[in-house]
Amino acid sequence: MVKICCIGAGYVGGPTMAVIALKCPAIEVAVVDISVARIMAWNSDQLPIYEPGLEDVVKQCRGKNLFFSTEVEKHVSEADIIFVSVNTPTKTRGLGAGKAADLTYWESAARMIADVSKNDKIVVEKSTVPVKTAEAIEKILTHNSKGIKYQILSNPEFLAEGTAIQDLFNPDRVLIGGRDTPEGQKAIQALKKVYAHWVPEDRIICTNLWSAELSKLAANAFLAQRISSVNAMSALCEATGADVTQVAHAVGKDTRIGPKFLNASVGFGGSCFQKDILNLVYICECNGLKEVANYWKQVIKVNDYQKNRFVNRVVSSMFNTVSGKKIAILGFAFKKDTGDTRETPAIDVCKGLLGDNAHLSIYDPQVTEDQIQKDLSMKKFDWDNPIHLQPMSPTVMKQVNVVWDAYEATKGAHGLCLLTEWDEFKTLDFKKIYDNMQKPAFVFDGRNTVDVQKLRQIGFIVYSIGKPLDGWLNDMPAVA
């Protein structure tokens, strides 16, 4: 029986291995992690991450050919194929601080693999890593090999949170990069054979190591670029009276462009986009490509601008101060159908409002109070370190109140900010909400999910990103 071990039981490792176990019943799959709490959660009825369809897949396989364990060395030693899906946070100090990926966890994983291995292994990069990481890992393993042969493959993930299980069941492509040697090609075929249990062969793309590593960074950079492009247009739409939804629809009808990732919003979030672009910027700078680095930096600058612009709209609309005012925050996750808050725009928006001394009442159907408090008290990039290295007891923000539903959040509020496009927010009784808010009552829609005209008829003053401005807002600056 082929044995697979995945080091890292996070958003990538857990779902990916669960689907491999489901689709390959003859393969034994072990997911290992040093976090006891995380492994206990994977073995319980309350999984550590929320992802539609994930619970069903895990329950079908767990205890049969899918195992979650803290016995890292045991399972690594026994495995034929080892996926490494550990954190690669952005460095906060030293060379490349603020841009380069910190490969500390990757390096320690590689050294541990070398220490405990007793037979030849295929080691697969699953984390998003900078180009040439495979080469570095290869050097560590070969210099500590004790006669054992290792083949390094790059198999980047292209999962979208909220649709990860469907993405795994029916991927656009599976990318496998390896060495162009007989041993490297044999390793590629071994991994290809795993995916071929359910992925059509024409969707499994085989490349060299560097192409596979760079393709992941490039894909995320291109997607983030589209979001920043439409968000830049949203600012121009507000200034001119155009409607960004109509503009995006017209642009997306061009078959060369297409309609996806053209929704204007308060900004992009998630664990990959910003981190991967910063990584790309660093690689460009290291290779003397200053103009290319500056090009990609601008994608992040526009994203930061969009979040700042949103906060400025809130404050300037409400008589230029939110001090002491209750602001309802509907949605904290970075997008719907996930409980993930990594790099969510809500963090920067909330911090901006707290900076003006607002009182926040926050509701999200999938994010816990502890997570929200932690996110609002953590330093930038701390979220990407393993849980045991994050602040254990966050500083409780006295101006932040986390509540159990949208109506409680908005009761007595001066304004509400819609920051995640949860489906339930589309069916809220806004007349009931209006009646229970302070007047004038403001709605700041950061996801373009509300019916602007309907809300204005109720009596709200509405700001919706990229839409023609409410008369109230016409003479108010978008940027301080």
Automatic annotation (TrEMBL):
Keyword NAD: yes
Domain UDP-glucose/GDP-mannose dehydrogenase C-terminal per the UniProt entry, residue ranges: 328-452
Keywords: NAD, Oxidoreductase
SUPFAM superfamilies: 6-phosphogluconate dehydrogenase C-terminal domain-like (SSF48179), NAD(P)-binding Rossmann-fold domains (SSF51735), UDP-glucose/GDP-mannose dehydrogenase C-terminal domain (SSF52413)
Reactions mediated catalytically: UDP-alpha-D-glucose + 2 NAD(+) + H2O = UDP-alpha-D-glucuronate + 2 NADH + 3 H(+)
Pfam families: UDPG_MGDP_dh, UDPG_MGDP_dh_C, UDPG_MGDP_dh_N
EC number(s) on file: 1.1.1.22
Enzyme class: oxidoreductase
The UniProt record lists the keyword Oxidoreductase: yes
Gene3D superfamilies: Cytochrome c1, transmembrane anchor, C-terminal (1.20.5.100), NAD(P)-binding Rossmann-like Domain (3.40.50.720)
UniProt pathway: Nucleotide-sugar biosynthesis; UDP-alpha-D-glucuronate biosynthesis; UDP-alpha-D-glucuronate from UDP-alpha-D-glucose: step 1/1
Similarity annotation: Belongs to the UDP-glucose/GDP-mannose dehydrogenase family.
Protein's UniProt name: UDP-glucose 6-dehydrogenase
Organism: Datura stramonium
Source species taxonomy: Eukaryota, Viridiplantae, Streptophyta, Embryophyta, Tracheophyta
